[in-house]
């Protein structure tokens, strides 16, 4: 009987919400969208689709950009995949040319190291803040014959230093590595049941060791402990991005019936209940989201926009 109740509970939780109604009934976040404008260091310099943006403790802004995307018009320019800017948009340094096929996410760990994942090659790179490569992890395991998007999507850092990687294009799993790059375990399989995934696209971990996975095509956030034990789920639209910082859980989401380039919302959630604490419209800026040291949001959007959601001055 207990197993039947658990199964019924999971089925009920999986019912998709009416996103517009949910947004209309939720408080609006006290943030306004501003556009961060990089200053070109010279003629002919351009970026294409900043797929992820983050900020370090020194308020330097790190942009991971794709340049030319698969099946999209090419971008003419000489920008490296990883770009570091001052708050005012001045290019400080850049690196990464030749390392990436489809750069997807960039994160900064608690020690200030810079991590990236590639959605085609499934390579994970660790750099110091000056671009020196410190480690590379070849996740591998892409399905035979699958080209283009076939690899990793995001990375998060556990309180003990372990690395948690979402492998959502071609696979449906979460991988765990030690801080020195040794694979420890993995969990997940294709499907829509507890602990199963249909494109795990983002991952975050709080200080209590709760793992939050943006199960994009299943329209939910799934929660786990550090060993992969399923703790629950929240249906919250086609959620692509999830991040945790300074006691707050943030997501980027949209309606399930829209395509992945459609407009959506940034939301702050109660991490115990999944209740929406605040929303703001995000246009396409909900793919991968990051929180600044001041609790503001940085994200990128097609074709070349970098958005900074911050407190009005």
Describe the structure.
With 313 residues, this protein is mainly β. It has one domain (16-310): Neuraminidase. Helix content is 6%, strand content 40%. It contains two helices and 24 strands. It has helices at residues 2-13, 19-24, and strands at 32-35, 50-55, 61-65, 82-85, 91-95, 103-108, 114-118, 123-127, 133-138, 154-157, 163-167, 173-177, 183-187, 200-205, 211-215, 220-224, 230-235, 241-245, 248-253, 264-269, 276-283, 289-291, 297-301, 305-310. A four-stranded antiparallel beta sheet has the order 1-24-23-22, with no helix packed on it. Strands 2-3-4-5 form a four-stranded antiparallel beta sheet, with no helix packed on it. The protein has a four-stranded antiparallel beta sheet with strand order 6-7-8-9, with no helix packed on it. Strand 2 and strand 3 form a beta hairpin. The N and C termini lie far apart (56 Å).
Domain module tally: 1
Low-pLDDT windows of residues: 1-13
β-strand number? 24
How large is the share of residues in beta strands?
A: 35-45%
Shape: globular
- Mean pLDDT across all residues, rounded? 91
N-to-C order of helices and strands: HHEEEEEEEEEEEEEEEEEEEEEEEE
The CATH architecture comes to: 6 Propeller
CATH topology: Neuraminidase
CATH class: Mainly Beta
Assembly category: single chain
Which structural category do the helix and sheet elements fall into?
A: mainly beta
- Report the span from N to C terminus: 56 Å
Major sheet strand order: 1-24-23-22
Write a brief structural summary:
With about 325 residues, this protein is mostly beta strands.
């Amino acid at each position: 009987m207990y197993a039947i109740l658990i199964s019924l509970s999971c089925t009920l939780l999986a019912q998709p919400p009416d996103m517009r109604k949910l947004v209309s009934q939720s408080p609006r976040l006290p943030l306004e969208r501003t556009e961060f404008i990089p200053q070109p260091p010279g003629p002919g310099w351009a970026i294409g689709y900043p797929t992820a943006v983050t900020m370090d403790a020194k308020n330097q802004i790190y942009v991971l950009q794709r340049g030319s995307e698969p099946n999209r018009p090419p971008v003419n320019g000489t920008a490296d995949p990883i770009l570091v800017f001052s708050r005012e948009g001045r290019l400080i340094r850049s690196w990464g040319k030749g390392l990436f096929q489809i750069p997807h996410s960039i994160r900064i760990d608690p020690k200030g190291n810079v991590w990236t994942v590639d959605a085609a090659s499934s390579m994970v790179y660790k750099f110091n803040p000056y671009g020196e490569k410190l480690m590379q992890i070849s996740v591998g395991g892409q399905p035979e014959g699958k080209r283009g998007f076939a690899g990793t999507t995001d990375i998060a850092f556990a309180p003990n230093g372990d690395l948690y990687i979402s492998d959502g294009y071609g696979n449906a799993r979460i991988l765990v590595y030690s801080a020195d790059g040794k694979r420890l375990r993995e969990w997940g399989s294709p499907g829509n049941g507890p602990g199963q995934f249909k494109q795990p696209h983002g991952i975050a971990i709080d200080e209590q060791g709760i793992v939050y996975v943006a199960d994009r095509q299943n329209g939910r956030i799934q929660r786990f402990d550090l060993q992969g034990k399923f703790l629950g789920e929240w249906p919250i639209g086609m959620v692509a991005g999830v991040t945790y910082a300074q006691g707050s859980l943030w997501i980027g989401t949209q309606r399930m019936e829209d395509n992945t380039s459609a407009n959506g919302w940034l939301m702050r959630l109660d991490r115990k209940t999944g209740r929406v604490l605040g929303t703001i419209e995000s246009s396409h800026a909900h793919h991968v989201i990051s929180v600044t040291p001041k609790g503001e949001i940085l994200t990128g959007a097609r074709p070349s926009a970098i958005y900074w959601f911050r407190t009005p001055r």
